[in-house]
Specification:
mainly alpha; four-stranded antiparallel beta sheet; 4 strands; elongated
């Protein structure tokens, strides 16, 4: 590998906005940061900067290199204006949530950092308002999720709701491909990825190909719903889904992934149809149940309340893994290793509580009870076998210790 003078010149010629984009890896984050930055440069600083979005970014960076205090004063003024908006009533159209303050400044900081402009951010952060508007919120209940399923329009919406409820994944996890889904079967020697007659559950590789990847799990009911949706997917596109095709796609004949805001709007629409959201509350920024995080909270509560065959600590660590967390402490990921099938064993115990169809739930309950009975029977047989071996060893030891001593041979007398 060699670096040429031309490479160096091209690097120096990159625009401030190009450098800004290079510092953001996730596509969704880039879109969100770009929209916020555009609003700041083109709307809030409309009378301060001139030109197009790209020109305004270059102008801010150029002024920042010559006079960092000028940029700092602008940011302090923006912070002051935003802080005033946080004092408005929550139903006011200009109300600004104080918990969004830091995220609002992140795109600006990224632009300045990527262009080597250092500011005293501690001074800017010190002007942020106190977060005193925290609302009590909770997750969806099982009955509410069942109600949503009754108002779903087609297999795609049913699949989205069931995936969210049975996996506990975040909204970004729905941007999955078909080869990210792998069924797990009941085998003769336990769970296996080798195809069998009965699905135990399925695993989804969430954020596959990134450092944040982790295995989530879905119920057999959810896996069946995805298979039903795959038939609709095939009819719309005109072919069987390829491994690299998106699972949830836009409407139409093209295999183009639906973006996460569109998927979130679908869920919000279902919740409103089901009477779980007030359709006319357009100005309300917060609800008692977060539209997507409500499924994650339902999953977390349901799984944490379920019984486990592991120790309480080991069970908690495994369930944290299944949510994409590092564990109870940061070192758990390094020192507490577990395989996907071991996590699946833990997940099986909570499948009945995550199943929405009552008939399927009953079947899963019976399956879990049969598995528990089999486990106890195997444990009993193993214990009896150990006792028989111990008894045999004791008998052999006793016989050796109490075997009569051999009589001495008499001498033969020759006449």
């Amino acid at each position: 590998m060699k670096i040429t003078k031309q490479d160096l010149a091209e690097t120096r010629d990159e625009s401030p906005l190009e450098l800004f984009k290079q510092g953001i890896r996730a596509e969704e984050t880039l879109t969100r940061y770009t929209n916020t930055l555009r609003r700041v440069l083109c709307d809030i600083l409309e009378e301060i900067l001139e030109g197009t979005f790209e020109q305004r970014a270059a102008q801010l960076v150029a002024e920042g290199k010559k006079n960092p205090e000028w940029v700092r004063d602008i940011l302090l003024l923006i912070s002051k204006k935003q802080r005033e908006r946080t004092c408005l009533p929550r139903d006011h159209p200009d109300y600004f949530n104080p918990s969004s303050m830091r995220n609002f400044f992140k795109p600006i900081k990224k632009l300045l950092d990527m262009n080597d402009i250092g500011l005293s951010w501690k001074r800017i952060y010190a002007t942020f308002p106190e977060i005193d508007n925290v609302q009590e919120s909770h997750g969806w209940t099982r009955e509410e999720i069942r109600t949503m399923l009754r108002f779903c329009d087609g297999p795609i919406e049913r699949a989205i709701i069931l995936v969210a409820a049975s996996s506990g994944m975040r909204l970004g996890g729905l941007e999955m491909k078909w080869d990210h889904i792998r069924p797990i079967y009941h085998g003769k020697k336990g769970l296996s990825f080798e195809q069998g007659t009965e699905i135990a559950c399925a695993t989804i590789s969430v954020y596959s190909g990134t450092s944040s990847a982790y295995p989530a799990f879905i119920t057999p009911e959810t896996y069946a719903a995805l298979q039903d949706y795959a038939l609709v997917w095939k009819q719309e596109v005109g072919r069987t889904p390829l491994p690299d095709d998106p699972v949830f796609k836009k409407s139409g004949s093209a295999a183009v992934a639906a973006d996460t805001p569109a998927l979130k709007r679908r869920i919000d629409k279902i919740a409103k149809k089901a009477g779980l959201r007030e359709a006319d509350r357009k100005r309300e920024r917060r609800f008692d149940v977060p539209i997507m995080n409500g499924f994650r909270r339902f999953w977390n509560k349901t799984c944490k309340e379920a019984s486990s065959r592991d120790s309480p600590l080991a069970s908690l660590i495994k369930k944290e893994y299944m949510m994409g967390h590092a564990g109870l402490v940061s070192l758990d990921r390094n020192y507490f290793k577990t395989r996907t099938l071991e996590l699946a064993e833990e997940y099986l115990l909570v499948i009945p509580a995550l199943t929405m169809n009552e008939a399927e739930e009953l079947r899963q309950v019976n399956r879990a009870q049969e598995e528990t009975i089999r486990m106890f029977r195997d444990e009993k047989d193993a214990r009896i076998l150990r006792l028989e071996e111990m008894m045999g060893e004791m008998i052999r030891k006793y016989e050796l210790e109490h075997r009569p001593a051999p009589r001495p041979l008499k001498k033969l007398e020759l006449s």
